[in-house]
Amino acid sequence: MTTVVLLGTGNVATHLFNAFQQTKKIKVVQIFSRNISKNNVGNMNPIITDNLKELIDADLYIIAVSDDAIAQVSDQLQLKNKLVVHTSGSTPMAALNTKNRRGVFYPLQSFSKEKAVDFNKIPLCLEAESKGDETILEKVAKAITPKTYFISSEQRKAMHIAAVFVNNFVNHLYHIGNEICLEHHIPFEILQPLIQETAQKVQIINPVNAQTGPARRNDEKTINSQLEQLNNKTHKEIYELMTRSLIETYGREKL
Amino acid sequence: MTTVVLLGTGNVATHLFNAFQQTKKIKVVQIFSRNISKNNVGNMNPIITDNLKELIDADLYIIAVSDDAIAQVSDQLQLKNKLVVHTSGSTPMAALNTKNRRGVFYPLQSFSKEKAVDFNKIPLCLEAESKGDETILEKVAKAITPKTYFISSEQRKAMHIAAVFVNNFVNHLYHIGNEICLEHHIPFEILQPLIQETAQKVQIINPVNAQTGPARRNDEKTINSQLEQLNNKTHKEIYELMTRSLIETYGREKL
To answer: Are B222 and A89 in contact (CB under 8 A)?
Structure first.
């Protein structure tokens, strides 16, 4: 059994705690929270402390606090040569204080406290400074999900950018689709199954092969007619740029 | 029971035929195919004809052929004052010959012949020229899906543009995410659960409220650092434009 001390009581900490409770391979032996008095500890029932000096011995210390606070919490730890990881996608491992063995334990998913999470489906991105620590992290990770990956800090930065494209920008396109629907009194729910199907497709086939539509076919008649119908200047710019990028990707061979 | 003649044996025709076979409320009494000899008729076992002059009497004639061929097939019909619809998202109802009562029966989904389709989840967009014909189309549609909508030709054009944003452009963002992953030797599968979660979210909440990320927060430090890391000129342009559009949408109040 691997022992874990969890630092933080936010979304990630809560979901990790719940996931660890499901397996006998991991025991959360302590939780650190700045504000024990607050109602933010829910059913986290192991020994809770608000004093970093009281941290007990464990195989792994997981700092699951906001990005800004990671370095500070890591600096304040009264531990030496322990395995200490953070859970942030956009923070390098080097943000952690060198007095301990450093690592990253980053679940790539957006969590909200209210929504239950099936950790089985969440990828865990791991990083450590030695083979031995990699083994410990992988053991802990595998106890809650089959999807574990060793990802360097450099790769994690790139992955974060890729996530901005496939999550943040994609959601903004959903918003634009919704705006076009509103303008024409079309219920957005008509588009919901298509949105789901589009996301579903790239679970099995490569997005480059899943592409359809007028820009993929370089169907200039449809493209020009759709551009003419767009009233919003920014929507038009996005339509033009995405279409140009699609034509660059698939070529003009079908003209 | 409503009788239907199906014209065409492509993806849409095949899936409609299969859906109609599941309900006793609809009887497909005839299928028209230009090439009976070909193996394209599968298990479509009612009376098949390749002669438009042999079409028998029915309550509804569904032209499920390629967009280019709709007007031609409709012109060639030897019928008068029958209810004739097409199944195209991008073709106006007016493309149909006026010698018959015209309408549209458009399933908003991308079909492939190999993949079975749960018609229950597919929205059917209906249009007709009279209340009476609307009632017939709704009856047929409701026999295969609860999701039926009356959508005018004008609205359908706008809906098609919205679909380009939430399907074609979204898939292209998935492709760009994949390219960034490839460049940094990150397996794309790490992003797949996030893609699914992003699509899942807007099934229940409005995309404008689901938005997260650096541009939503107007987090200039992260935005500038990510822009610097992008090597591909078009990726950079898309990042800049989407970020600008997000900041226009959510304002600068969080600066």
So the answer is: no
Residue type, A131: K
A117 close to A111: Cβ distance less than 8 angstroms:
yes
d(CA B124, CA B121): 10
Q: What pLDDT digit, counting tens, does each position of A29-72 carry?
A: 999 998 876 555 556 666 899 999 999 999 999 999 999 999 99
Which range has the top average pLDDT, A246-255, B132-141, B207-216?
A: B132-141
Using the CB atoms, write b or e for B161-184: b if 16+ within 10 Å. bbbbbbbbbbbbbbbbbbbbbeeb
**B residues 136-175 closer than 8 Å to A (CB):** 147, 149, 151, 154-155, 157-175
Which ranges of chain B does DSSP label H, i.e. alpha helix? 11-21, 70-76, 131-142, 153-163, 170-183, 192-201, 207-210, 220-229, 233-250
pLDDT range class, residue B255, cuts 50, 70, 90: very low
The residue of chain B with its CA nearest to that of A213 is B168
Which residue from B122, B154, B226 is facing A161, i.e. has the nearest CB? B226
Residue type, A84: V
For the record, the structure tokens of B22 come out as 């599941």
State the number of CA atoms in the 13 A half-sphere of B240 facing the CB. 12
How far, in Å, CA of B204 to CA of B209, rounded? 11
Q: Which of B125, B120, B129 is nearest to B96 (CA)?
A: B129
Residue A63 DSSP SS3: strand
What backbone torsions phi and psi does residue B14 show, to the nearest 5 degrees?
A: -60, -45
Residue A226 at interface with chain B, using a CB cutoff of 8 Å: yes
Q: Which residues contact B192 (CB under 8 A, 6 or more apart)?
A: A202, A203
Average the pLDDT over B18-42 and give the result: 84
